[in-house]
Amino acid sequence: MLTITHPELMAEAINFPAGSRALRIGGAPRPILLIKGTKEMLLTAQLNRGFKMYVVPSTVDGCVTVGLITAFFDDGD
Question: What's the first-to-final CA gap in the chain, in angstroms?
Answer without folding.
Answer: 30
